[in-house]
Amino acid sequence: MTRIVFKAQQTTDPASLTTGCLIAPLFIGKKLSDVAQQLDKLTAGAISSAMKLGDFYAKTGQTLLLPGAGKAKRILLIGCGDAKKFDKDASRKFINSIYRAVSATQAKDATVLAASLNIADTDASWLLEAIARTITASLYRYTRTLSKPKKAPAIAKLVVSHGPGITTRAAQKALNTGSATGAGMNTAKELANLPANICTPRYLAEQARSLAKGNPKLTTQILDEKKMADLGMGALLSVSAGSDEPARLIVMNYKGGKANQQPYVLVGKGVTFDTGGISLKPGAKMDEMKYDMGGAAGVFGTMDAISRMGLPINVVAIVGAVENMPSGGATKPGDVVTSMSGQTIEILNTDAEGRLVLCDALTYAERFKPKAVIDLATLTGACVVALGAHATAVYSNKEELAEQLLDAGITSHDRAWHMPLWDDYQNQLDTNFADVSNLGGPGGGSITAACFLSRFAKKYNWAHLDIAGTAWNSAPKGATGRPVALLTQYLSDRVGK
Ligand code: BES
Ligand code: MN
Ligand code: ZN
Fold first, then answer.
1. Do residues 139 and 283 share a domain?
2. Entry pTM
3. What residues make up the domain containing 324?
4. Residue with the nearest Cα to atom 7 of ligand 1?
5. What pLDDT digit, counting tens, does each position of 207-238 carry?
6. Which ligand lies nearest to the CA atom of residue 381 in the structure?
7. Rounded-to-integer distance, Cα 187 and Cα 1, Å
8. Do 218 and 350 fall into the same domain?
């Protein structure tokens, strides 16, 4: 992966900046801003004449690429609309325009004049972080199994000049945070995009080891099927029973905080391929079930991001990595298994396997005496029906935790929506043959899946993120890196708390 470097810099006269591309935001108005006037002078009136002709009047998303002037090889103006309406949404459009325009040129470096941008309800670091995160994530390309990958954009360095509202040191920190988050998102995307014949449970375990390599704050522990059997993980192991690929429980321990600080625990569903098992899925779009380890990918990406940031907190990651296949050894509908918690489960549908993997991982999480446990999983098709591709579903047994996650989603624009976890739904999981069934009936499928998990998360503050709709796109097909930004923001917000 080519990585782009970000550098914060105090504003100076734009004419003095040596750069491959000088990028300036421009607002609608009769009078040019101070920066625009400076650039207009530098380009011998090119801006005012383009505005006079009506070709460019700073409408949101409009761009104007001018030939070089002064020490800049190119000058790029980006329309930002009405200055009074320049909010978070408008600034996201601005950032996307930077990405599109810069990746369309051959410029190897560029300088964004961001000093004049003031966004309501944010501090100055928010924009810088968003720039670095979005541009880094946008530059991701999948190449691993292509014999002739397309050429990547040339851009390798982005300088961002900031205003007096922030120190250069704080600005650089915001850029680093955004860049780390974007890199974490790309880690998640890469793992999720890999085909299931490469990305197996054992492959994920190797990736955890290599993430920890050379990082003294991060250690890995891999549990094989024998170890899991000794722990009594009958639910998780029932899923891998029909596969030739052995399951793994992957544990990563990040110690950025004090030794005695309680950790946050992230739990990821790592079904590297979900055929449905004996309750076999229909054929259409079954290839997309390689993304059924999207929760695990999100956990890896978040661990990567916080490691890069050196976040001063403790975080444990637990990934249940399994392949769900139908073979002669596979679990059958009606089979009853015993989970690590001791609760027995009647498996009425082998395609409701994610909750079987997660419930044992959630019980395993108890040993870390967590401050909070957050699991993430591409858990239900019903979640996609309910919320589509834009919002991750949040469930929690603690209101405050749900609120914190929703807030983090808004700040990072990786948004989530609070769903009910009412007791009224619990009896949909009743059965005559075990403590609980893994099937909740036709109504509220994402909710009853969460209800199932809640029975294994009683000993701590817990939240569940159903990312079935948000972890990947179907057209064009590709992983999104969600919810790495949300979780990284949530964990950053916990520092010092
Ligand atoms: N991995 C799927 C959920 C899924 C399906 C995510 C489609 C995204 C797109 C999960 O293991 C599953 O198969 N769930 C079943 C549960 C049902 C049998 C209760 C589902 O949603 O159909
Ligand atoms: Mn399934
Ligand atoms: Zn699944």
1. no
2. 0.98
3. 186-494
4. 381
5. 999 999 989 999 999 999 999 999 999 999 99
6. 1
7. 10
8. yes
